[in-house]
Amino acid sequence: MRLETRDNIAKQGTEIASVRGTLQSLAESWGNDYDHVKYLQKRIADMEEKLTNVQNTLAEIEYSEQVDWTGRLNE
Known about the structure:
- There is one protein chain.
- The chain is 73% helix and 0% strand.
- With 75 residues, the protein is mostly helical.
- It has one domain (3-61).
């Protein structure tokens, strides 16, 4: 695997960890206050958007290096 590819994957892993941490803290702070619930719903929607972006980036990384049938990188 090329260094650039490995770096991109590592960056996406960091982003995923950030999103997971945020979702965990939101889950722990769930309450009955209407405004608080609306705030949490907004934050969760934001995190879902981030995860979608991460998934798209990972898909781009996955297909960014063309490999021939022997497994060698075509450059």
